[in-house]
Design goal:
- The complex is a heterodimer of chains A (109) and B (311).
- Chain A has helices spanning 3-24, 28-52, 62-92.
- Chain A has 109 residues and is mainly α.
- Chain A has a single domain (3-92), classed as Helix Hairpins (Orthogonal Bundle).
- Chain B is an all-alpha fold and 311 residues long.
- In chain B, 70% of the residues lie in helices and 2% in strands.
- Chain B has a two-stranded antiparallel ribbon.
- In chain B, helix 7 (134-142) crosses helix 8 (144-162) and helix 8 runs antiparallel to helix 11.
- Chain B is globular, with a radius of gyration of 22 Å.
- Classes of the chains: A mainly alpha (109), B mainly alpha (311).
- The interface between A and B is large, with 86 and 96 residues.
Chain lengths: 109, 311
């Protein structure tokens, strides 16, 4: 297997791992982190596609590269907004969680 | 040899990803995520996409890491043992994730050969713009509209973050407390590093026309220096209502937009550059954008106002 193939599998594994964590971890901050892991995987897939498209003396197709640079910045903005929402939520309610609502949420104040 | 290195790198990335996901303590998870980002940046270098590697290391790993660390520290008291999901749910989620991973992997390995590419097209028209870096070419010439809209997204995200401030502190100061005593090593670094970082940021923006680098990477470096100064307590976070700060936020997108609109008159299309002036205009836009990106990313990382301006 080539290096590109190995990185392609790494990328898809990152997507899978992140997806699993988004679905199973009840803590919102962990979901945000997992979302970023998925993002890393998706961006790397772009990188693999870019590298496969190496031509005209370039090591990688510049169009997917530019898309990923834009993507990383937008992913950061979305993460910052999500974190700000979460911190605001944490100030309003004692225990921000998306887990089972069994009423055991204590008051931490 | 290269293959062995790449395999090791890939395995390390997967181990760190697993660590990020399964470690109990969120603080450790964030640290693992930061290291993961740096290693992913190495993969980008191996994929010969140095521009992306710089962006990933600076923004995807660095600034995102700073943001997540602050949040993890704040949320630590609330981080009690949350009831984990049942085994059945985990199995179902695991199976679904595995199916998606295998499916995506198959698609990624069975991509058509030879791969479709826009590289020859991108290189063919590049000399007209006077740029030497094809990625900057795509960002500021071929897909300039995407780049412009992305700047607007950054500002919109900041508006969203700021709007989470309470009414009575609107325009006030974000709650970023210095993480250290005023005589610590961090303070020393925060006084020593910023001039060097500033230079590097400006260089990165300037060199982006011909070599890896550009407005995003340069801006992210400025952000890193600014965050360092604020975290060390050398300078306090600014009031979000400051007029000068708000002007800095929009100067980049505004100049880019003005250049874009001038394209109607001078070159017959939105975001078209008149012949011979492309590189000069792009560098003016990039310089302004570097400043705006640096300020916007920093403000996104420190969050909404928490206390009133004059308190």
């Amino acid at each position: 297997m080539t290096s590109t193939g190995i990185f392609a599998l790494t990328a898809t594994s990152l997507v899978g791992l992140g997806l699993f964590s988004v679905m199973t971890n009840p803590q919102p901050l962990r979901k945000i982190i997992a979302f970023n892991v998925i993002g890393n995987g998706v961006f790397l897939l772009f990188g693999v596609v870019a590298h496969r498209g190496a031509a005209a003396g370039l090591g990688a197709d510049p169009v997917p590269q530019a898309l990923v640079i834009t993507g990383i910045v937008v992913a950061f903005s979305a993460t910052a907004l999500a974190v700000a929402l979460l911190l605001r939520l944490a100030k309003q309610t004692p225990l921000p969680t998306l887990g089972t609502d069994d009423g055991s949420d204590g008051d931490l104040a | 040899m290269a293959l062995a290195f790449d395999t090791g790198l890939a395995l390390l990335v997967l181990v760190l990803a697993a660590w990020t996901i399964w470690v109990q303590d969120t603080f450790s998870a964030v640290l693992a995520f930061v290291v993961l980002g740096l290693l992913v940046a190495l993969i980008w270098v191996r994929l010969q996409s140095v521009d992306v590697a710089l962006t990933e290391a600076a923004i995807g790993s660095g600034v995102t890491g700073a943001l997540l660390l602050t949040a993890a520290a704040f949320l630590r008291p609330t981080e009690r043992a949350v009831a984990p999901l049942g085994a059945a749910w985990c199995t179902a989620a695991g199976s679904l994730s595995a199916i998606i991973t295998v499916g995506l992997g198959a698609i990624a390995l069975l991509l058509p050969d030879p791969a479709p590419t826009l590289a020859p097209l991108a290189v063919a028209s590049l000399p007209q713009s006077g740029l030497g870096n094809p990625v900057t070419g795509v960002l500021f010439v071929y897909r300039a509209l995407d780049t412009l809209l992305e700047k607007v997204v950054l500002v919109l995200a900041l508006v969203g973050v700021w709007s989470l401030a309470a009414d009575h502190v609107w325009g006030g100061i974000p709650a970023l407390r210095p993480a250290t005593r005023p005589d610590s090593t961090l303070t020393f670094l925060a006084q020593l590093l910023p001039p060097v970082g500033l230079m590097l940021g400006i260089y990165m923006c300037w060199t982006g026309a011909d070599h890896p680098g550009g407005a995003f990477q340069g801006g992210a470096l400025l952000t890193a220096m600014w965050l360092l100064v604020m975290l060390a307590g050398v300078r306090a976070a600014p009031a979000t209502g400051l007029l000068s700060l708000r002007l800095l936020l929009i100067v980049g997108p505004t100049i880019f937009l003005v250049i874009g609109l001038a394209g109607f008159a001078l070159a017959g299309a939105f975001l078209a550059y008149p012949a011979g002036y492309a590189k000069a205009l792009i560098i003016v836009a990039e310089a302004a954008l570097t400043l705006s990106i640096g300020v916007t990313l920093g403000l996104l990382a420190v969050g909404p106002a928490e206390r009133a301006r004059n308190s």
